[in-house]
Amino acid sequence: MSNIDAADYVEAENGSKTLRFGDEKQQAKFELGVCMAVYKWDELNTAVENSWGGANSAEKRDWISGIVIELFEEKLVDVGLIEETLLYAMVDEFDTEVDNDSALIIADLIMRIYRLVAQRDYALVDELYQKWTHKQSLKQQQNKVVVSADPNNPDASDESDDEDEEAPQLVEENDMDMEEDNGPIIDDDGFQMVQKGRRHR
Predict the structure, then answer these.
(1) Where is the composition biased (Acidic residues) (predicted)?
(2) Which residue has the higher pLDDT, 133 or 155?
């Protein structure tokens, strides 16, 4: 990635001690942009989908977005620092070393997002968010299909459903027997049947 300068940086201006935006909308758009950039990182998505970080892998991804956002609470941030933060987080939280330039690409994207938001240009953030929401809606549709018909184990859900349905029926049958015990039972010929002992099950 020769076209990405790891030393590229942004610095707080006008005597400010932080890169945080004073305008709430700008700050919100920037934080959304960071989240979308982190969610765009394929290596991290693979780690989350395979639960390399344990059961709370998805929460760890959000935590990584948070620590990147916190970097901009300082007066100066460069692309290299963002890249290192991403790489260290992958090792610490997912026990995974990324040996390509993917983290550098995401770090550069985050830097671009910051500069655009500083100019109140939110087009890139909105585009990333729209792509992400579209991707999520497609996943939900696919999940619905999988839930309704699981090709790997088609009988499992059916069996559990049958068991759930049979249990109330058994109770109803017992209740019916109890009700019948309380009154006489007439056979087909019109004679009353002796039912002593039926109470003892």
Answers:
(1) 156-190
(2) 133
**Residue 129 burial class via C-beta count within 10 angstroms: exposed 0-12, middle 13-18, buried 19 and up:** middle
**pLDDT > 90: what percent of the chain?**
65
The pLDDT tens digits for 151-197 are 666 555 555 454 444 444 444 444 444 444 455 566 666 665 555 54
Contact 43, 96 (CB under 8 A): yes
Long-range contacts of 20-25 (CB under 8 A, 24+ apart): 20/72, 20/73, 21/117, 21/118
Q: DSSP states of the chain as a string?
A: -TTS-TT-EEE--TT-S----SSHHHHHHHHHHHHHHHHT-HHHHHHHHTTTT-TTHHHHHHHHHHHHHHHTTSSEEEHHHHHHHHHHHHHHHH-----SSHHHHHHHHHHHHHHHHHTT--HHHHHHHHHHHHHHHHHHHHHHHHHH--SSSHHHHHHHHHHHHHHHHHHHHHHHHHHHHTS-EE-TTSPEEP-TTTT--
Domains of the chain by residue range = 22-139
Q: What is the pLDDT of residue 200?
A: 47
**pTM of the predicted model, to two decimals?**
0.70
